[in-house]
Design brief:
This protein has 12 helices and 19 strands. It is α/β, with parallel strands linked by helices. It folds into 2 domains: 242 residues, Spore Coat Polysaccharide Biosynthesis Protein SpsA, Chain A (Alpha-Beta Complex), CATH 3.90.550; 157 residues, 2-C-methyl-D-erythritol 2,4-cyclodiphosphate synthase (60s Ribosomal Protein L30, Chain: A). The relative contact order is 0.12. Bound molecules: magnesium ion (MG).
Length: 419
């Protein structure tokens, strides 16, 4: 079969009238139904661990943070649902489970049929045995125009020879040659129709979906990718993967977020600072309880996941936050950070105020923040200073606070800087 491949069109070169793919609803079919007999004895390869993490889980993680994906299906062997759930861990809840067929082609078709009700416009097909695909490579596929039929493929750098039946061999020109990988991207309805037609014809020999779509008359685009997105097939591949994970230690993914807040002082009889009500001859003015310490810390936490600021999540225009205790905001930010995979290691707040004195309340403030974020007391720091009577804070017109939050993320997770 002659292969005709078109190179990826740079997104910047698109005509304005051409519909871009970004923003289209996308489904994922993660194909994990193979038995992987070439990988040796033991459990199917997608349920084995590399670097301590199941292969299927690693593959699923690569797609976990991609917002365009609105429906996920994992295709598993008839007896493998429990193994697949165990391997996926908390990500299992984000997938529908489908039983595969006797060939990869049938397994993909089963996955596509299961996705049909979701109404997705496009679909990514990915082999679970390729756990090292880069998030940036998946995003490059998704940036292609609507209706693209495309695959990741790595340029071939070795010289190529074809072995002939008579024991001799012949050179094959290397120019333009790419080793086909997954994920592959398709317009959903066209891929499903082509699969259904191939099944009706009894045409069952396709080893990948781009091959099937090319046979149906579609042009296949290549998005060049890294050879690191290799398929775990043989015991050697597993050894290579283990060595790779050991010898290229992930960069520690430690993020430090910063926050600042200031509120004016007006008439009143108390202020709330870092969750503690302190009797005072003035009050902080604001929509909520005007706790500048917790507002600054909330912003610092949101910064570590690039999630905007406190106003993004709790608009001052929303009447339900009138007089609200700011521990609600802090707890929300902590939960967002944790669900993004972060472990909060330090919450550090500096309050700048001429009065009241913070020292007598420091322990209570530390406890309030530790409780709201589920931290040990030693991971919370409260500091205070006056402004030496300089400027607006020095004239007691207001109180401000600065905060930093330190959060550590799993360096092997999707979106981490080393991948
Ligand atoms: Mg505020």
């Amino acid at each position: 079969m002659r292969r005709r491949v078109a190179h990826a069109i740079p997104v910047t070169g698109l005509h304005w009238g051409m519909q871009r793919g970004a923003g289209m609803t996308t489904g994922l079919v993660l194909v994990a139904a193979g038995r992987g007999t070439r990988a040796g004895d033991g459990p199917a390869k997608q349920y084995r661990r590399v670097g301590g993490v199941p292969v299927l889980r690693r593959s699923a993680e690569r797609f976990a943070t991609i917002g365009a994906i609105s429906a996920r299906v994992v295709v598993v062997g008839p007896d493998d649902a429990a193994d697949a759930r165990a391997a996926l861990g908390d990500l299992a809840a984000t997938f529908d489970f489908v039983t595969g067929g006797t060939t990869r082609q049938q397994s993909v078709l089963n996955g596509l049929r299961a996705l049909a009700a979701s109404g997705v416009e496009r679909v990514l097909i990915h082999d679970a045995a390729r756990p090292f695909v880069r998030v940036s490579e998946i995003e490059a596929l998704l940036a292609l125009p609507a209706n693209s039929v495309a695959t990741l493929a790595a340029p071939v750098h070795d010289s190529l020879r074809r072995m002939l039946d008579d024991g001799s061999s012949a050179a094959v020109p290397r120019e333009g040659m790419h080793a086909v990988q997954t994920p592959q991207l398709f317009p959903f309805a066209r891929l499903l129709a082509s699969h259904e037609a191939a099944e009706t014809r009894g045409d069952t020999g396709f080893t990948d979906d781009c091959g099937l779509m090319q046979a149906a008359g579609h042009t296949v685009t290549i998005v060049p990718s890294s050879p690191g997105n290799f398929k775990l097939t043989t015991p050697d591949d597993f050894a290579h993967a283990e060595a790779m994970l050991m010898t290229t230690p992930a960069l520690p993914d430690i993020r430090v977020g910063h926050g600042y807040d200031i509120h004016t002082l007006g008439p009143g009889d108390h202020v709330t600072l870092c969750g503690v009500r302190i009797p005072h001859d003035r009050a902080l003015e604001g929509h909520s309880d005007a706790d500048v310490g917790l507002h600054a810390l909330t912003d610092a936490l949101l910064a570590t996941i690039g999630a905007g600021d406190i106003g993004t999540h709790f608009p001052p225009s929303d009447p339900q936050w009138r007089g609200a205790a700011s521990t609600i905001f802090l707890r929300h930010a902590g939960n967002l950070v944790r669900s993004a995979g972060g472990r909060i290691t330090l919450a550090d707040v500096t309050i700048v105020a001429e009065a009241p004195k913070i020292g007598p309340h420091r322990a209570a403030m530390t406890e309030a923040i530790a409780a709201a974020l589920g931290l040990e007391l030693t991971r919370v720091s409260i500091k205070a200073t006056t402004n030496e009577q300089i400027g607006a804070i020095g004239r007691k017109e207001g109180i401000c606070a600065m905060a930093t939050a330190t959060v550590v993320f799993d360096a092997n997770a999707a979106g981490s800087p080393h991948v």
